Amino acid sequence: MANINFTYLPGDGIGTEVGEAAINVLNATVNKFGHTLDIERHLIGGAAIDAGMKPLPDESLASAKKTGAILLGAVGGPKWDHLKGSDRPELGALLPLRKELNLYANIRPAAPHPALIDRAPLKREFLEGVDFVVMRELTGGIYFGKKGKDNPNSNNPSAYDECRYSESEIRRISIKAFDLARLRKKKVTSVDKSNVLETSRLWRAVVEKVAKDYEDVDLEHLLVDAMTMHMLTRGKDFDVILTENMFGDILTDEASVLCGSMGVIPSASLSDGTMGMYEPIHGSAPDIAGQGKANPLAMILSAAWMLRLSFKLENEAAAIEAAVDAALYDGHTTGDLGGSMTTSEVGQWIADHVGGDVS
Ligand code: IPM
Ligand code: MG
User: Domains in the chain, please, with CATH?
Assistant: First the structure.
């Protein structure tokens, strides 16, 4: 029996709704398997700002560091768009959380579910058989480089964002990618812009070095501009796509198009050991917040990943995934996937079917 102690940061917009659905599913799962849940719920993002706190309150960060497992909904929304720099939910909460917890390895999957293939804008032949993950570097590069403005008061002000990578930063994310490829189809595609950027040339050289310890894993390099095409036209050729922070941000949004809906894709942001943060790849969707329309599946799958990766509860994670699978096949879904259920009804359906016969 395990005590599952984690930090729950529902955040803003639909984050709270999909979060409650996921907590419902987690409760059902621990009851089924004889574990206990110890949830530390805290504010983050706009919700924290509205409560008179910083976007990442000290107590939220302290809890996250202590539990080492974080389930996050979403942060941000138009209400806080007028704020600047690190007063903003994204820059002031999400980025420091990633940095402070050293969550350098972000994993986002792209494997179109058979029940959703017709929802994607691409022809079936480009989707069937696609099953890759993007391993995105998450705590370095242009996101965290020096930024600033020159001559802000002149008639031609300029601004800059520095992109810097060290060999050790590239090595550790490469090792994560090769280790994961070993458990999958044994192929790493490293994406860079080495025909132009110095950081990309270092990236490529370090990836080559790491690859020497993984002779059983194939390695290919692609330039990021070409990769945007290859992902759509020959997605099934990829297994683990390894790339830096900014390219990974862009490529993972593109990859979600292959899956028919952003509402079903979980993610993990990992450090060394079992430290991890789990969140849907979608945002706070303020336009549909509070209406029970949000699809909770990405959040529920993120909770399953938390059980698997931070708590090593593989059977429990697989039970949740099987129930989600059944919900997709049988159409127990929200309107975005053609169903007619509310967010909490989908959560309840999955909760009722975790660990049951869903074949
Ligand atoms: C993501 C998001 C974030 C990022 C934003 C909200 C800062 O787009 O997680 O992909 O750019 O990393
Ligand atoms: Mg993004």
Answer: 1-103+271-359 (3.40.718.10), 123-264 (3.40.718.10)
